[in-house]
Design a protein that fits this description.
single chain; 275 residues; alpha/beta; Rossmann fold; three-stranded antiparallel sheet
Length: 275
Amino acid sequence: MFDELVSNLVKIKQKFSKTYSGNAHIQEIIPSDTSKEFPIDENHLKQLHIFAEKNPIYFNSYVENISEIQCVVYEGDINEYWLNSIKHGSSCQPFYPTWIMSAYLMASVAKKLGYSDLVDIGSGDGRIAFCGDILELNSHSIEIDDVLVELQNKICMETKHNFNPICSDALEFDYSKLNLKSPAFFIGGLPQMGGDILAAGIIEKINSIKNLRVNTGLVFTGTDTKRQLSGNLSDGGWRDLIEQHKLKVLETVSLPTVWTFDQMVETPYIFTNFK
């Protein structure tokens, strides 16, 4: 059922990207209702819409039927936040969000794999951590940019979901303060854009906390676009780091993101743990 849900999201994204006639900086879709194509918890789906409605990066929404599925199209602009996000020297990637539906499906995979905590590194507007919270995971959101953290705090207040935004350099933060039991760390950043350095630093942090790595997973953002890759193309560009740190790939899920909107490929998210 989960694989079909992912497949259906990709299908309507591909259809929507071909027919979209607007000129918004970013755009994405969320099904209006649960259905056999999208058998999502009704309250969870409602919360995803609330996240978009309360998030100031979106300035417009309208209903559209896409491949016989009624959806809400959300249009937005992230230029202001993108400019702020690139001012930090240790930032691995400018703010470019995954889709809200994709964030929900990623958090769902983490829960399915048995993780009780979700730590989103380089969390942007906090959408992955938000989705973890509605799925009753113990969510934490680590973001270096203070403007984005201010945005997250506003979303927490408006949605009444506290996903614990923290303004900090992820490589300097003391993760022992979070009292993590079985966390999935989501690493925001492609390996070719410094994500590999960020991931290696997070792994070092995990190793420094007694017994934590036994129950810890790492989720990497990859790419299947060859022009963005150099070196080993396997596992979305993460194969070298995976082998170096003796990680095991559990699952790979390819989902729509803002940066693949006009592409025929989606963004692969690689779920791993320590062997």
